Amino acid sequence: MKSTPKSKPLLFLFFLIFHLFFLPTSSSTNNNASNSNSNTTFKEAPKFYNSQTCSTITIDIDDNNNNNNEKYICSEETIHVAMTLDTTYIRGSMAAVLSVLQHSSCPENIFFHFICSSNTSLLNTTISKSFPYLKFHLYNFDNSIVSGLISTSIRSALDCPLNYARSYLANLIPLCVKRVVYLDSDLILVDDIAKLSATELGQNDNTVLAAPQYCNANFTSYFTPTFWSNPSLSLTFSNRKACYFNTGVMVIDLMRWRSGDYTTKIEEWMELQKRMRIYELGSLPPFLLVFAGNIVSVDHRWNQHGLGGDNFRGLCRDLHPGPVSLLHWSGKGKPWVRLDANRPCPLDALWAPYDLLQTPFSLDS
């Protein structure tokens, strides 16, 4: 970058003031995934309507909102989506919700289950203002349930108790909900979520979830030498063709989960991890220990993951070969952070159209 000519001090001062007071603040100087705070505002998203082929979920006009919510939640026609929600990743969450609605053929039949552990009122207001027609409910997740089970991982952001809330969805979501699609906050859909939600899980009661599998990945690397050198532990996968899967996109049968008490099974592995370190990577390995080799495989198009780069440097990555229905910025780098810092990766441009952040330059009303 060329230095500012000394003959133009006023011009330099103008650009300095402009940068300090008008440009969006970069969050590249810390490890936070967002510059969201209590002063952040978001634009209102457009309302999306069902196509003529969608089933109608009947409600009573005279019922209060809670009763209507209950009817939507328990309807067989409802598509259920679960996401965690916090102020750090709220910008990503808003973009994800918008992408789900925009590409759905039956957006009015989608119900969102948001799990949060703090700032509930603020988050509720934020979602309601940007999506005034959205059908959703916020559930409070008690961090103390899991905080004592968490072991430090390779990146501090992975140690947040809310990252483990996906293990407790069956305890939080109403019993009438049979199936839910769990989504991380750093992704966008470019296809109809109804297709993913309709994934067949088969007749085996032990098949609890579906997700894209990656059997070419080095599965052994997700566990420590301590794990593999222990005869009883290394036999965990002996009768399973265990492959890596990313827990940021899952179709979960909640009835089978509850019946098999899979939350307890995950917690048991976390308790063992506290006594003898058998993995390094946060909330993923317990899921692999319990489910790897026993899931329904979904086409890779439904989780083009790793776009955030690795957990150390967050370098740019390309898409995997093949079609795309969902783009997932898993890893250290988040698209909104890189865009704000004017150092985006090429694929971050695909996330930008779903960004609802209200900027000083926005011409939207």
Automatic annotation (TrEMBL):
Signal peptide per UniProt: 1-28
Subcellular location: Endomembrane system
Keywords associated with the record: Glycoprotein, Glycosyltransferase, Membrane, Signal, Signal-anchor, Transferase, Transmembrane, Transmembrane helix
First-listed, main subcellular location of the protein, grouped into a coarse class: membrane
Pfam families per the UniProt record, alphabetical: Glyco_transf_8 (PF01501)
Gene Ontology MF term list: glycosyltransferase activity
Protein's recorded name: Hexosyltransferase
Transport listed as a keyword: no
EC number: 2.4.1.-
SUPFAM superfamilies to which the protein is assigned, alphabetical: Nucleotide-diphospho-sugar transferases
Lineage top rank: taxon: Eukaryota
Species of origin: Lupinus albus
Cellular component terms (Gene Ontology): Golgi apparatus
UniProt family annotation: Belongs to the glycosyltransferase 8 family.
Gene3D superfamilies according to UniProt: Spore Coat Polysaccharide Biosynthesis Protein SpsA, Chain A
Presence of the UniProt keyword Ligase in the record: no
Top-level class of the enzyme under EC nomenclature: transferase
Pathway info: Glycan metabolism; pectin biosynthesis
Membrane topology per record: Single-pass type II membrane protein
